[in-house]
Write a structure and sequence with these properties.
The complex is a heterodimer of chains A (240) and B (219). Chain A has helices spanning 3-17, 32-45, 49-66, 70-87, 102-111, 116-131, 134-143, 145-152, 156-188, 195-226. Chain A is mainly alpha-helical. In chain A, helix 2 (32-45) runs antiparallel to helix 7 and helix 9 runs antiparallel to helix 10 (195-226). The model of chain A is unreliable at 235-240 (pLDDT under 50). With 219 residues, chain B is of the alpha/beta class. In chain B, 28% of the residues lie in helices and 25% in strands. In chain B, the strands form 2 sheets. A 6-stranded mixed β-sheet of chain B has the order 6-7-8-3-9-10, with helices on both faces. Chain B is globular, with a radius of gyration of 17 Å. The two termini of chain B are 19 Å apart. The chains are: A mainly alpha (240), B alpha/beta (219). The A-B interface holds A 17, 19-22, 144-146, 149-150, 163, 166-167, 169-170, 173-174, 216, 219-220, 222-230, 232, 238-240 and B 50, 53, 55-56, 71, 74-76, 78-79, 81-83, 85, 87, 89-96, 99, 103-104, 106-108, 132, 134-136, 150-151, 154.
């Protein structure tokens, strides 16, 4: 199997896993979580340099405090940079001032007209993609999701979003590892190691993954319902 | 004597299936008994447990808990029935083992009582050293014990255990087996499933054999 793909899935799973680490020394520091959400909202919705600088400063400060988890924050920034560099590539050759039809898009691709303006747009896009989620993610690495969730459960309005996020954080790494083991199991029985076969194998897990996830989530829902006696923190079917 | 749980002409068809998974099931679970449901894979044992727990609504027929239709007693009745799923991973919905075990008690008691119950149950199962651990980092056997602790912590009257001894090391099988016997002595009613026989052997009071969704024998 392509080592890059394997290491990408493993690392992504490890990164999400590390949200779950508890930090015993966060008493009185949980207030920074709402601040991080505010910064994330600001960077997501505005292009203002002040909000970008604030988010960056906040993240750096949290990383300095997080010490042993600073590496995770840097790694996450690197992942975000990598992803945004790939998905932002069209910005280098398209104009952001007008909506382009398909023909115009094809012509601009053909012309490969990279301008100063498009480079700036591309760079801005990458910076925003990195800085938008980073304050929240850095705070979660620092505080540990359990510390945040425990406090969020005390507030009725935040209980459900916190519970859903918890399930996401707990179960997504499992799903990723399951996907990885499916790919490995297929590759172990594949004797032609050309790129075409390798990608055929990888793509073939999608259907199994969807079916497996559906079954898993159904059982998960039963398990939640079995231990939900009132509206806390879920109320999916408790009253049916 | 009245049964704790009674199933009357219960059938269940999964949505999209033509064939019923359970067919015309009539059975009782008596208070303070250990009932073992045996049968081959696909015979409907897990589905029967889900129906008994009220998590699946029977297509036809009724499930009675203390002679009152179970579905009329929700959500209160949920705290009286504990379900251990075959795959303990689906029961892990909290980040740490402590939160996982405290999930039920936190809904019923104040935080201090919930904490006390968590510690008590963790000690009973010998998993108190795991309390601070993330639920993801546990081994399969540890997950099974944590899942069991998470239902024992709210002290349900009826325990529905889906293959509690399967895929475990001998030491953990012994621990769960002796725990099941202890729970019976404490007055709990236990229904457990096993693929071929009540492995390990838990001392079952009665055994029910299920095949193709039909009860073929009760001994």
């Amino acid at each position: 199997m392509n080592n890059m793909l394997e290491s990408f899935i493993r690392n992504l799973s490890r990164l999400i896993d590390s949200f779950n680490r508890t930090n015993r020394d966060v008493r009185g520091k949980v207030y920074i979580f709402p601040l991080s959400i505010l910064l994330t909202l600001l960077v997501s919705t505005t292009d203002n340099p002040i909000s970008l600088v604030s988010a960056a400063t906040f993240t750096i400060l949290v990383s300095l405090h997080a010490r042993d988890r600073a590496g995770m924050i840097v790694r996450t920034a690197w992942y975000l940079a990598l992803l945004s560099m790939i998905i932002g590539l069209p910005l280098l050759i398209t104009s952001t001032n007008s909506i382009m039809d398909f023909g115009q898009l094809l012509r601009s691709i053909e012309a490969l007209n990279v301008t100063e303006n498009s480079i700036e747009t591309y760079a801005r896009f990458i910076i925003r993609i990195i800085l938008a989620p980073l304050p929240v993610l850095a705070t979660i690495y620092y505080l540990g999701w359990p510390s945040i969730a425990t406090r969020a459960y005390r507030l009725p309005l935040l209980r459900l979003p916190a519970a859903i996020t918890t399930i996401f954080i707990v179960h997504l790494p499992r799903l990723l590892r399951h996907a990885l083991s499916m790919i490995l199991a297929r590759e172990a029985r594949t004797f032609h190691h050309d790129i075409r076969t390798a990608w055929k194998n990888r793509v073939s897990i999608i259907g199994d993954l969807i079916v497996g996830s559906a079954t898993h989530s159904k059982m998960l829902q039963y398990a939640i319902n079995a231990r939900t006696f009132n509206d806390y923190p879920f109320d999916f079917e408790a009253r049916k | 004597m009245k049964p704790l749980l009674r199933l009357e002409k219960v059938s269940y068809v999964y949505p999209g299936n033509n064939e019923p998974t359970l067919r015309d099931i009539n059975m009782e679970v008596w208070e303070n008994e250990i009932l073992c449901i045996k049968g081959p894979n696909g015979s409907g044992k897990s589905t029967l447990l889900l129906v008994m727990a009220g998590l699946l609504h029977p297509t036809t027929g009724t499930v009675y808990y203390k002679e009152v239709p179970l579905h009329d007693q929700f959500p209160e009745a949920r705290s009286k029935i504990g379900v251990l799923f075959q795959n303990p991973e689906v029961m892990m919905i909290n980040p740490t083992v402590f939160d996982e075990i405290a999930y039920g008690p936190r809904q019923l008691f104040d935080e201090d009582t919930a904490k006390r119950k968590v510690v008590e149950v963790a000690r009973l199962l010998g998993i108190d050293y795991l309390l601070d651990r993330s639920t993801i980092s546990l081994s399969y056997g540890e997950k099974r014990l944590v899942a069991l602790a998470s239902i024992l912590s709210y002290d349900p009257e009826l325990l529905l255990l889906d293959e509690p001894l399967s895929n475990l090391q001998d030491s953990k099988i012994d621990r769960i087996r002796s725990l099941i016997n202890q729970l019976k002595q404490r007055g709990k009613t236990i229904v457990l499933t096993a693929p071929n026989r009540c492995s390990g052997e838990v001392r079952c009071d009665r055994t029910l054999i299920l095949e193709n969704g039909t009860i073929i024998e009760i001994t």
